[in-house]
Amino acid sequence: MKKILYATVFCLSIASCDVLKTVATEVLTTPTTEEATAGLKDALKQGFGNGADALSVPGAFKNNALIKILLPPDAQKVADKLRSMGMSAQVDNVINKMNEGAENAVQTAKPIFMDAVSNMSFNDAMGILTGGKGAATNYLKQTTTGALTDAFRPKIQASLDQVGVTKHWTELVTIYNKIPLVTKMNPDLNAHVTQKALEALFNKVEEEENLIRDNPAKRGTELMKKAFAYADSKKNTQ
Predict the structure, then answer these.
(1) How far apart are CA 191 and CA 4, in angstroms?
(2) 207: Cβ–Cβ under 8 A, 6 or more apart, which residues?
(3) Domain coordinates of the chain in residue numbers?
(4) Which of 20, 57, 158, 187 is positioned for an S-S bond with 170, CB 3.0–4.6 A?
(5) Tens digits of per-residue pLDDT, 143-195?
(6) What are the backbone angles phi and psi of residue 187, rounded to the nearest 5°?
(7) Could you tell me the CA-to-CA distances from 188 to 89, 93, 159 in Å, in that order?
(8) What is the reported pTM?
């Protein structure tokens, strides 16, 4: 009888230990608000840094058909006219400089992203962490688009000015716009290139963000692993 009693107590003790271990593990793997915020910030810095780096290398825009910046649709008729006059090389040079300007501009994005991440509130971070794919990118669109536009335009303008695009293109469009009954065109190529560069950048940033959300192997720090494991657990209970 005593042997049975001892055995029962022993089994209960083991079971209790297992329960305690499970509880302890759950407590240890549930991040604090500070840890979750820090983990998300690590992810943002990694993902957005990678995205900006990938698009700032020479040829990143020009050699990628998916993001290569072409002339605005309403300007294509002017480009076609120039090509018919034997000026294809000049048109191609304008397009190359547009893409080069975008690559140079993207280099300015990283410190702007990092500043936005550093100033993120706890509430923003927790909402983004559990907000699903694209949540962080949408946050950055809302908080950095104005600053990025201001930073991009001078870089793009400098590239366009290298081949006299601004002066000659503006003159050409101005003349074209004086033709009766034609649809007027905006001669501001800078605005067009800036918009396209921002679109490509945010798409790349979202791609990097979703890689981190989908693939635990992409979570490069312990805080990232802990924060996104927590986000995964919330996703699975929804």
Answers:
(1) 84
(2) 51
(3) 1-30, 33-237
(4) 187
(5) 999 999 999 999 998 888 876 777 767 776 777 778 787 777 766 788 889 99
(6) -75, 0
(7) 21, 17, 14
(8) 0.77
